[in-house]
Amino acid sequence: MRYGGVVLDAVAPVAPATAKKILVVDDESAILQTLRYNLERQGYAVCTAGDGRTAIAIAAAEKPDLVVLDIMLPLLDGIEACREIRRTSDVPIIMLTAKDQEVDKVLALELGADDYVTKPFSLHEFLARVRARLRRAEPGEARRGEILEAGGISLDPEREAIAVRGQEVALAPKEFNLLRVLMENRGRVVPRRTLLDKVWGYDFEGDEQTISVHIRWLREKIEIEPAQPRHIVTVRGRGYTFRD
Fold first, then answer.
1. What is the helix, strand, coil percentage profile of the chain, to 5?
2. CATH code for the domain defined by 148-242
3. What is the pTM of this model?
4. Which of 58, 136, 168, 220 has the fewest CB atoms found within 10 Å of its own CB?
């Protein structure tokens, strides 16, 4: 049965190992309450919002473990809300959209969303996506390691901090992870598919153009001449390499 854009399947309660907090954002009350009810049945703590501005405020105050964010929202749409949340947080974000336009999905992913679900969707599919994203964010997946230094760039995985030629530089979470992977493999060519897998996840369904966009943004922040990069170098037909 379909209700408010959600296909209602029978979902058996599951006792979770830990109670994770999920922020659900949608302006359709039927969908909001349906998702809240079923997530709470799974043992999650749920907070909700009906517009983009409220979502940003709640995300900052509540520090959820996952955000479920509809694209079509009043006051501030989900794309802009995603952009704002990503400025300060690496929380997993799943986008909801009633549109079947590829541009919306690609844009959301390029701005830092981790996954998307197109309405109408099955609750079993939705809950599976939620569980998968929360697993990837477990402490065992956290970024740890020694400080990486090369070419005047210092990257501290533990503090999630970066300095370029002695000056601290602010990077978005995906940019930071992208640079980390490249620096960990400096001198070696890293294929685009490998970068997508390591930074966006193995189940990422977006276009490889996402890599090109983030590489351009990264070059603008760390290269002396972004149009003639010295550190993040494109190896045509193969991928990218980091050079000292």
1. 40, 20, 40
2. 1.10.10.10
3. 0.57
4. 168
